[in-house]
Design a protein that fits this description.
By secondary structure, the protein is of the alpha+beta class. The chain contains 14 helices and 23 strands. Strands 4, 5, 13, 14, 15, 16, 17, 18 and 23 form a 9-stranded mixed sheet that branches. Strands 7-2-1-11-21-20 form a 6-stranded mixed sheet. Strands 8-9-10 form a 3-stranded antiparallel sheet. Strand 8 and strand 9 form a beta hairpin. The two termini are about 40 Å apart.
């Protein structure tokens, strides 16, 4: 097999495949270590895959602590909840900078026996009739043809493999915020380590400790503020962080160690992800709003399941194509709920009053907030918590409280119900985009 893209989707997939007895060429235009845009965090479901890969000890050796507590704030509601885990989980989750995480995953794939081609760019596909049979790759040694019965695109949201096979994009959810992040040394936080996820007014901030005794702070301002923010990135970023009183003590003696990095465009989408001789995994096939930090865990889970499907197909071309098609349909079912939830979580503006009411209702239920956090573990579907009954209760409480005009409450109910119906329809009958909503590059935007 050929796996194009050697980061958190491609390298673990290659490791699974090689350990199962397949021969794998792992190709990436980057060299490692190198950075990429990311929310950095992966939750218990992703940590479980990394545990089965056998890399958790290496990740902990970087100094990244287990993230044991969810410290959330929605409008004026706040709560601290122990991060839920299952007995088989090595831990609740970690935040590791991508140049560190990806290097460990690449090294693991090499140690397993994958052949690594870094600094190598895929320029074309090799075809045998209608079937993809390899890639044309260009690196320091010139151009070469790599042939294999299956080519995997694990090459990010602007996937070259996806574009070369003509995979269509569907169910686009445009981003309403942009993101910038940076790292601080000397931050004062006390164990157990927490993930702060804070939404107040129209502000959104995520922060937690990461590897090398650093502290990561990510800000997600409304997209309407992009022009003014990027006029002076460092000053704008510092003002955004300073506006969060919850970080005053944590960062009182801290020093930012690098210029903020960021990304302005990250529309969510699905992309057709399987065909004769090819398959797309991770962000190449599906990308969602980064606000719930699901990309790394999804890539890890998808890769593990894809490896199992391919190995069970036994190397027969028709059986492999059928297996990747089934996997692609599973991926769509698995990702649909979180795709729409992530879009809503990352929406611009203040916290919707009904969402706020539902969360408050969950806080009053035994184990309600723990189940809410398990949504981020991808072990509880958003629809299991954002139910019609909870919506009606939240709307009724808002009407009784009279903090908002009745028409505002009823309009929001209408919007929520209408969105839900449209999304359910789109999950079965996708809306295809006329043009790709993603840039040609996943490059980072520096200060």
């Amino acid at each position: 097999m050929i796996v194009v893209g050697a980061r958190c989707a491609g390298a673990p997939l290659a490791t699974h495949l090689v350990r199962a007895g397949l021969s794998v060429a792992l190709v990436d235009r980057a060299t490692f270590p190198s950075d990429t845009a990311s929310t950095h965090i992966f939750q218990a479901s992703g940590a479980a895959v990394l545990g089965r890969l056998g890399v958790v000890d290496r990740l902990l050796a970087t100094g990244a602590p287990w993230l044991e507590v969810s410290d959330m704030q929605l409008a004026d509601f706040s709560a601290k909840v122990p991060w839920p885990t299952e007995p088989s989980d090595p831990g609740p989750g970690l935040c590791v900078r991508r140049h560190v995480l990806d290097s460990i995953l690449v090294e693991t794939a090499q140690e397993a026996g994958a052949t690594l081609h870094t600094g190598t760019r895929v320029t074309a596909l090799v075809r045998e009739g209608a079937r993809v049979a390899g890639v044309v790759a260009e690196g320091d040694g010139g151009e070469r043809r790599l042939l294999a019965p299956l080519v995997v695109g694990a090459d990010g949201r602007s996937s070259k493999v996806g574009r070369l096979v003509g995979a269509r994009i569907y169910n686009v959810a445009p981003n309403e915020r942009f993101g910038y992040w940076a790292y601080y040394e000397g931050a004062r936080w006390s164990p157990p380590a927490s993930v702060l996820m804070l939404r107040w007014d129209d502000r959104f901030l995520i922060a937690c400790p990461t590897d090398a005794d650093l502290y990561m702070v990510g800000v997600l301002p409304p997209l309407a503020e992009l022009k003014s923010f990027t006029a002076d990135v460092e000053a704008s970023y510092e003002a955004e962080v300073a506006g969060c009183r919850r970080l005053d003590d944590v960062l009182a003696d801290a020093r930012r160690v690098a210029r903020p990095r960021g990304q302005a465009s990250f529309a969510g989408f699905f992309r057709e992800s399987a065909g004769p001789g090819w398959v797309l995994v991770g962000d190449a096939g599906h990308f969602k709003d980064p606000s719930p930090g699901q990309g790394i865990s999804d890539a890890l889970r998808q890769g593990e399941r894809l490896a199992e499907a391919v190995v069970n197909a036994g190397g027969v071309a028709a059986d492999t194509d059928a297996a990747t098609a089934r996997w692609s349909r599973w991926r769509d079912r698995d990702a649909a709920g979180m795709h729409w939830f992530a879009h809503d979580l990352g929406a611009a503006g203040p916290v919707p009053l009904l969402f706020d009411g539902i969360v408050r209702g969950l806080a009053a239920e035994p184990d309600g907030l723990r189940r809410a956090i398990d949504v981020f573990n991808h072990r509880v579907e958003p629809s299991d918590l954002l139910t019609p009954r909870r919506l009606v209760v939240a709307a009724g409480q808002a009407l009784v409280a009279r903090r908002h005009p009745p028409r505002v409450v009823l309009d929001e109910v209408k919007t929520v119900v209408g969105n839900d119906l449209r999304r359910r329809w789109r999950n079965h009958f996708p809306l295809y985009a006329d043009a790709a909503p993603v840039p040609e590059s996943d490059s980072l935007a520096g200060g």
